[in-house]
Amino acid sequence: MSTEVKVPTLGESITEATLGQWLKKPGETVKLDEPIASLETDKVAIEVASPVAGILTDQLVKEGDTVNVDAVIALIGDSASAAGNVPDAPRTETAKSVDEQKLTQDTAPAASADLTLSPAVRRLVLELGIDPTKVKGSGKDGRLTKEDVLAAAKGSSPTAPAAAQPTAAPVAAAGAGRQEERIKMTRLRQTVARRLKDAQDTAALLTTFNDVDMSAVIDARNRYKDMFEKKHGVRLGFMGFFTKAAALAAKDIPAVNARIEGDEIVYHNYFDVSVAVSAPNGLVVPVIRNAETMSFAEIEKTIGDFGKRAKDGTLTMNDMTGGTFTISNGGVFGSLMSTPIINPPQSAVLGLHRIEERPVVRDGQIVARPMMYLALSYDHRLIDGREAVTFLKIIKEAIEDPTRLLIDL
């Protein structure tokens, strides 16, 4: 008897997702609550866990297919019946299906080795009969590329099925010249692209810049970082300072923390900060809620937790929902200056950039100081230029004199 594996509830107002990747192959044993597939929604990736222990007998949808909530995507058989049935299945298939089944079984070690293969690489592995666990990847994070698989095929004995050879020949020939690879955009990337374009089409975007001397903040970190980490169990970073400074500035310039809804302006008496975090599938923006009431330690712990869960793919829909203002730190990637795009329906985003020593004038003398460019992109329909400049100026003053953060000045 088989147990159905269904698409779980994905979150409020979300009715469908894309099957991003199968984590288990037919015939493989699965444990209770073990992930067998990964779904991509508009905001996060969600793993689908097996409701029972047994053997995955059927995959009912393909990678890249759109699936609705509660749709059946797989069948799990109990270990006893599945073990008796799975080997018999190939005998009822055509000769071509038998070859395909053998290729799938031959490449099963890829799953046990926890390899991540792109759709194009996976197809090539199946066509050439290559064991991906025995090929050293030259791509990012050691991932296999098409060139790696082709090179392995040239250097190995001809073990691939005869039917696969005609397909492999033109691909191998292309390896010597210019190549292209066509991969469907993930649902997350499609959503990001649509929302960014919508922001450009809807909002009257404008960016104002300033620069800030980071000397005082760097000095404070150097003096207190060890004590801070010992007491709170988290490192003292720059994001805590900028989050507190932005919350302080929003008190004086509430329009920056507001949104347009129809012909009305909605002001918030709370400051929920969306923090841009890099994840394997793209940029995500989990929300620090009530940041105006949080301590430095609480902010740093929250950001650290978001970063870890973004890499693990365990951020939830609730983590991503809401947000009244965004801070994007492109400086961690080396960005010198940028014009960030707002995250609708928010009306403003603060862009941080890399710190570098530049010559500045202090007391009539040219000296080197660790400087950072700040960028505030905003919706000019709601926020006037004077307000945007003032908001950025308050942040600059708070960072250059962190005492202002303690006395609310």
Please name the fourth-level CATH homologous superfamily of the largest domain: Chloramphenicol acetyltransferase-like domain
Largest sheet: 7 strands, mixed
Number of strands: 19
- Residue share in β-strands: 15-25%
Tell me the count of domains: 3
CATH topology of the largest domain: Chloramphenicol Acetyltransferase
Mean pLDDT: 82
Q: How would you name the oligomeric state of the polypeptide chains in this document? A: single chain
Tell me, what is the CATH class of the largest domain?
Answer: Alpha Beta
Computed over alpha carbons, the radius of gyration is 27 Å
Low confidence ranges: 81-114, 157-169
Per CATH, which architecture of the largest domain? 2-Layer Sandwich
Number of helices: 13
How would you characterize the overall build of this protein?
By secondary structure, the protein is an alpha+beta fold. The protein folds into 3 domains: 92 residues, OB fold (Dihydrolipoamide Acetyltransferase, E2P), CATH 2.40.50; 92 residues, no CATH class; 220 residues, Chloramphenicol Acetyltransferase. Strands 9, 12, 15, 16, 17, 18 and 19 form a 7-stranded mixed beta sheet that branches. Strand 4 and strand 5 form a beta hairpin. The N and C termini lie far apart (69 Å).
Q: What's this model, at a glance?
A:
This protein is of the alpha+beta class and 409 residues long.
